[in-house]
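> forwarded from #structure-qc
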């Protein structure tokens, strides 16, 4: 091409860019036939003017990670290493992503754990081949056996927290993610401002949360779930409750018959966009629908 000293070949963008002596693009060439061998091109949409002989670039056919499953703890980091094959692939750059950034974030293969649950880290080729590799990250919440008659094991912190004194998520009953406004207009199970409820009710509806509506199960997976009303009553009636502070956060230390303990912070509650009674009261859901008159 007149005046063009060099050119760059961008096979996956379907074009060739000619550069002048200063490295500036002077014309864009539309690729008409991008097969191995002859390649006919047209400048700026005009009739074909030039023919180049080219070879199809070597695409990525696999990505191998040095780990495909990791069990980690909050605030831990881990550097994943990706091997891109074949070794002579023309474009070996990759991108990284996390399926759940509430559990684990990733940048350039470096994983940072920020919460409990599971996340899939994906390493993707950028050459258009569609090749990917994944690593599952599991961050298991710790639990305590309080020695209760029912044998239930209790988590060491709230859903959305990583330490016993952290408040965690504020959630409406049956909802699994925090939101900006907490009122009937944003509640998932009513269409008339709370007068009637569609899925959970005492008129033939369900009275115990399904797994998909159980925040502990959704966020932490596995066998985690919210306690039933009976299990909360067992906790209340068989443990010693002492008002105290943990790292300057007020709440109850709950000591079981075997002297093991959990801490329930006084996290208050949310209505509309406001937060109330922090430091003086805590409110904790069961998975059981209230069956009283009001």
């Amino acid at each position: 091409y007149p005046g063009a000293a060099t050119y760059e070949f961008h096979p996956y963008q379907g074009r060739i860019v000619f550069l002048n002596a200063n490295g500036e693009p002077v014309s864009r060439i539309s690729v008409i036939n991008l097969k191995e061998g002859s390649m006919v091109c047209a400048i700026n949409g005009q009739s074909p003017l030039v023919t180049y002989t080219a070879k199809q670039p070597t695409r990525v056919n696999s990505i191998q990670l040095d780990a495909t499953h990791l069990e980690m703890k909050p605030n831990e980091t881990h550097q994943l290493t990706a091997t891109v094959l074949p070794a002579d692939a023309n474009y070996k750059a990759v991108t990284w992503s996390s399926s759940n950034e509430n559990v684990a974030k990733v940048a350039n293969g470096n994983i940072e754990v920020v919460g409990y649950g599971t996340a899939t880290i994906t390493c993707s080729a950028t050459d258009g081949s569609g090749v990917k590799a994944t690593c599952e990250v599991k961050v298991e919440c710790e639990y305590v056996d309080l020695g209760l008659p029912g044998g239930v094991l209790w988590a060491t912190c709230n859903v959305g927290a990583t330490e016993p004194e952290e408040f965690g998520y504020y959630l409406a009953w049956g909802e699994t993610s925090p939101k900006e406004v907490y009122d009937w207009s944003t509640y998932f199970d009513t269409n008339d401002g709370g007068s009637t409820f569609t899925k959970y009710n005492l008129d033939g509806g369900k009275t115990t949360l399904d797994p998909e509506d159980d925040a502990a199960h959704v966020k932490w997976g596995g066998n985690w779930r919210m306690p039933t009303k009976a299990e909360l009553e067992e906790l209340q009636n068989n443990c010693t409750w002492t008002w105290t502070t943990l790292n300057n956060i007020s709440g109850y230390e709950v000591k079981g018959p075997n002297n093991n303990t959990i801490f329930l912070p006084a996290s208050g509650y949310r209505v509309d966009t406001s937060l109330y009674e922090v430091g003086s009261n805590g409110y904790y859901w069961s998975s059981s629908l209230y069956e009283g008159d009001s």
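QC bot note: Confidence is low (pLDDT under 50) at residues 1-15, 29-40, 46-54. The first strand starts at residue 6 and ends at 10.
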